[in-house]
């Protein structure tokens, strides 16, 4: 009984000595000051990154290219959450280190686990990362006509792992995003229709040019696919038997084929009425 009382007295005395020791107060004050600084810096980093992501999303929404605003906001939230989680993780690690926790085994185990997962799912990770950047950079959108490798068609779906493209004959190509290394987008900018009109060498060139200009002007006024009046560039080639005239027209994205067909038909009719034969 006396030993218990003596032990209790020693414990109280050692506790009191620890509490009143200025060195211990200095140590704990330093620790709490470091923790506060780490916490404040983490909050500042989170606030700055959230503003940067919000500004980036606003710029994307103002882009003249087609881009789904809901997709933009989703990507913005995803990036914000990823950055916030990363910053919070490092804040917790730094705070625990201030209290003397040995974090080396935990970090080493997490590193080994991440490495094993990375080696086991390299293609999946590559597909997801590529899909993320396709969406984030607005390389193409649903409804765009694109070509990647040997596949050309209309984009039906952009997923985080695969992209679906339907070609003009109806086949649907499902392409892993990791295999999309180069893309040609036919729907992001206006296209150019180029039509060559060939008339006989003996034909009246001035009348042929005048008829061509009147025809393309009429087609332009009646079509919403042509964004500005087509230009009759003049004589493109001359041979012993014929003369080729060239016309160019700026069209809406991916509309050049339809505009070329319309121009060909109207030019053929106009030249036939004047007695000129359109060879090509």
Outline of this structure?
The chain is 56% helix and 19% strand. By secondary structure, the protein is an alpha+beta fold. The model has no long low-confidence stretch (mean pLDDT 78).
SSE topology:
Elements: H1 2-20, H2 22-61, H3 69-98, H4 104-120, H5 122-136, E1 145-148, E2 151-158, E3 162-166, E4 172-176, E5 184-185, E6 191-200, H6 205-221, E7 231-238, E8 242-251, H7 256-273
Helix pairs in contact: 2-3, 6-7
Give structural notes.
With 280 residues, the protein is of the alpha+beta class. It folds into three domains: 100 residues, Helix Hairpins, CATH 1.10.287; 48 residues, SH3 type barrels (Roll), CATH 2.30.30; 83 residues, 2-Layer Sandwich (Alpha-Beta Plaits), CATH 3.30.70. 56% of the residues lie in helices and 19% in strands. It is built from seven helices and eight strands. The strands form two sheets. The chain has a five-stranded antiparallel sheet. A three-stranded antiparallel sheet has the order 6-8-7, covered by helices on one side. A hairpin with a 5-residue loop joins strand 3 and strand 4. Helix 2 runs antiparallel to helix 3 and helix 6 crosses helix 7. The mean pLDDT is 78.
